Amino acid sequence: MPYYGGGMVAGGAPAQGGQSSAVQEEKKPEKTNFDVKLEKFDAASKIKVIKEIRSFTTLGLKEAKELVEKLPAVLKAGVAKEEADQIVDKLKAVGATCVLE
């Protein structure tokens, strides 16, 4: 029995599948606003973390302390990538673990 065009169909299917996934990736917008989330910190550096949080938020001492005690917590929401990176770097310097979401 002769074999007609089966290889072309099989060869064409992955190429079309690859193109559609590339189109889906292009349609997905790049994230511009991030949330800074505090996950954990060294117990010895709790006061330093609270002071640092107060430096870039409008929280008072009591509110910052309560925020640190109920981890994980979002420290700042909807900030630009550059500002979020600066916040994360400052918190890592005082012994905290943060992530961008």
TrEMBL record:
One annotated GO molecular function: mRNA binding
UniProt keyword Endoplasmic reticulum present: no
Keyword Transport: no
Annotated family: Belongs to the bacterial ribosomal protein bL12 family.
Keywords, ordered alphabetically: Ribonucleoprotein, Ribosomal protein
Superkingdom of origin: Eukaryota
Compositionally biased spans, kind Gly residues: 1-10
Domain Large ribosomal subunit protein bL12 C-terminal residue range list: 34-100
Protein name: Large ribosomal subunit protein bL12 C-terminal domain-containing protein
Biased composition regions of type Low complexity, renumbered to the chain: 11-23
Gene Ontology, cellular component aspect: ribonucleoprotein complex; ribosome
GO terms under biological process: translation
Region Disordered, annotated ranges: 1-30
InterPro entries, per database record: Ribosomal_bL12, Ribosomal_bL12_C, Ribosomal_bL12_C/ClpS-like
